[in-house]
Amino acid sequence: MGSADEGRAGGSGRQPVRRWTWYSAALLGFCLAAAVGLVLRTFVVSAVRVPSRSMEDTILPGDYILVNRLVVPRRLLLQIPFVASPPRVVEIPPIRPIRLGDVLVIHPPVGLAQQIFPANAFLLKRCVGTPGDTLMFRGSTLTVNGRMVLFPPTAVQSKTPAAFTESHDPVILVVPPETYFLMGDNPANSEDSRVWGPVSYRSIIGSAAMVYWSVTPGSPRGRSGSGSSSVRWDRLGVLIR
């Protein structure tokens, strides 16, 4: 009797052992990767394709660009589970302010987006004016707060300068608060703030960081009839400056 009772007591004290199977581990890994990817895409980095010539030759049509989203404030909606309280909006500050010379990725101005671009289109332009800056256009020369703006050597404007405006007289403007004046590196083939005016910071998605893929126009992702020969391998990994 005593030994039987001891056996039952000993058996009741055992706990079932949980074993992770390969499937459950793989599922957990997939969920974690998806969550990290979602956070990165929402708050850190995203990718866009360049369709136009406005940023030649810094950025070419057919380039695919990684975008740094940490240069603009990001808003995060927090909701505590199982609690009947309204969600809270938390604003994540940028890691640095937007600077002159940054190549920015923006949503098109509302009117322009409806007329020309699809709803999910993006534009890439260089920042040449920040809030409060005084810009003066004179022929093919641009000064900001009295200092001449020099486009990078890759820009068409550096190789074959074109007049910024049709006016023969200097054009002077001050960038309003919370807006940025943007232009293409190929201004003769660019619609930018000279047409739409300064862009609100709320329209800015981030700054262009690097070319991660590039194909010749007319052969999406390098899978046209010419196959991989359309890939511009020398463009891969090019940093945007």
Note down, in words, how this protein is organized.
The structure is a single chain. With 241 residues, the protein is an alpha+beta fold. It has a single domain, classed as Umud Fragment, subunit A. It has five helices and 13 strands. It has helices spanning 2-12, 22-44, 110-115, 156-159, 193-196, and strands at 45-49, 63-68, 74-78, 88-92, 103-106, 123-129, 134-138, 141-144, 147-148, 171-174, 179-183, 199-200, 204-214. The chain has a seven-stranded antiparallel beta sheet. Strands 9-8-7-10 form a four-stranded antiparallel beta sheet, with no helix packed on it. β8 and β9 (147-148) form a beta hairpin. Residues 1-12 and 222-228 have low confidence and may be disordered.
Low-confidence stretches: 1-12, 222-228
Describe the sheet with the most strands.
7 strands, antiparallel
CATH top level assignment: Mainly Beta
Proportion of residues in helical segments: 10-25%
Termini, distance in Å?
85 Å
CATH topology: Umud Fragment, subunit A
Q: Examine the secondary-structure arrangement and name the CATH architecture.
A: Ribbon
Radius of gyration: 27 Å
Q: Give the ordered list of helices and strands.
A: HHEEEEEHEEEEHEEHEE
Number of domains: 1
Q: Any idea what the CATH superfamily is called? A: Umud Fragment, subunit A
Helices, by number, come to: 5
Shape: globular
The secondary-structure class comes to alpha+beta
Q: Order of strands in the sheet with the most strands?
A: 1-2-13-5-6-11-12
Overall pLDDT: 79
Q: What kind of assembly state do the chains in view correspond to?
A: single chain
DSSP strand (E) fraction? 25-35%
Number of strands: 13
